[in-house]
Amino acid sequence: MASVVFGLASTRSPLVSMSPLLWPALGERDRVSPDLHSRDGNPVTYEELLQAAPAHIQQELLPAVLQSKYDRAQIALATLAQQLAQADLDAMVVIGNDRDGVNILASNRPAILVYRGQTVRIAPREVNPDADEVTKAPLWAWGREAAVHPVAVDLALHLEEHLITLGFDVADSVSMQAMAHPFGFVYTRLMPAKVVPIVPIVLNAQLPPNIPTPQRCFALGQAIRTAVEAWGVSARVGIVTNGGLSIGVLEEALDRQVLSAMATGDAAALAALPRGWLRGSSGEVVNWVTAAGALEHLPMHQLDYIPAYRSPAGTGSGLAFAYWRDSTT
After folding, report:
1. Cβ(81)–Cβ(192) under 8 Å?
2. Which of 108, 191, 196, 298 has the most other CB atoms within 10 Å of its CB?
3. Domains of the chain, CATH where assigned
4. DSSP letters along 274-296, please?
């Protein structure tokens, strides 16, 4: 029978793909960002954040500190890729969100979608050749070249049917123009030389009003594992996700709270995360919560947590990297 034997979760922030010398330039764009809000979800301005920012953030922006954090992120990503290769998987369930508006649109916005087409298409994002380096640097996450990769179709159909029986009314898709960059990231930075067939699960992590709650996402992860274990095929299956943690206003304490709760399988603590905080880009935290539900039976190994500040106002991203694996498997 199939079993979930491995999992990983990673940030995919632009900060891990651009020179740390460019981080402050990205921080300058936060002055006009619409994605800055408090823990309760209320919008805040860059100037309000700047007035309240602790003095130590200035030290976080020193070039040597930025370089050190960038280097740590590269080591963590390389370790995740190595762990994924060593897991020797037959299939992967990849949990992502559709930040690009590629497949979750105003005209059709499912909270949870399972894709079961024969293949996934990865397409580089087009950009003006005259764009600056801050704009160009993160585009690797969409893929460096167009590619088509296999889907574990039988597992996808089984998951969808089993999730329905478990009370999750998931949306169904057999055709997509291209996958959003959370999926391109997997192939570009994490996938081993052996391309593993995937089952894409797309969450509406950021677009209200039908964003699934952390409680629902943890239960979804548990149901995914139950479904995998009920698949009548001998297969080693992995759970892979990316995104988050805090994005925009860097919330170190909340990020560490999420990581601690996932490491201990504390579903109640994850369910109690502030809903307001999970608006906008930080909503990608639910990708991690879903994976944690699916992987609660395995020990979590946190490789690193890096509070990556990019402006004196305390904006930036919480860069986190973890994998789940039993040493006996």
Report:
1. yes
2. 196
3. 3-325 (3.40.830.10)
4. -TTTTSGGGGGHHHHHHHHHHTT
Residue 8 DSSP code: E
The number of C-alpha atoms within 13 Å of 127 and in the hemisphere containing its C-beta is 17
Tokens of residue 64, six digits: 């040597």
Q: What is the pLDDT along the chain (329 residues), one digit of tens a residue?
A: 899 999 999 999 999 989 999 999 999 999 999 889 999 889 999 999 999 999 999 999 999 999 999 999 999 999 999 999 999 999 999 999 876 556 666 677 899 999 999 999 988 888 888 888 888 877 777 777 889 999 999 999 999 999 999 999 999 999 887 788 889 899 989 987 889 999 999 999 888 888 899 999 999 999 999 999 999 999 999 999 999 899 999 999 999 999 999 999 999 999 999 998 988 889 999 999 999 999 999 999 999 999 999 999 999 999 999 999 997 76
User: ∠ CA(213), CA(216), CA(220), 5° rounding?
Assistant: 135
DSSP state of 20: G
Q: Are 85 and 9 in contact (CB under 8 A)?
A: no
Strand partners, 180: none
Rounded to whole angstroms, the Cα distance separating 298 from 296 reads: 5
Contacts of 230 (CB under 8 A, 6+ apart): 1, 158, 162
- Cα atoms in the Cβ-side hemisphere of radius 13 Å centred on 242: 26
User: 102 vs 107, 280, 286, CA distance in Å?
Assistant: 12, 17, 19
User: H helices within the chain, ranges in order?
Assistant: 23-29, 46-52, 57-60, 63-87, 133-136, 153-165, 181-185, 214-229, 252-264, 267-271, 285-294
Is 0.85 surpassed by the pTM of this model?
Answer: yes
Q: Which is nearest to 105 in space by CA: 255, 207, 252, 222?
A: 207
Burial class of residue 44, CB neighbours in 10 A (0-12, 13-18, 19+):
middle
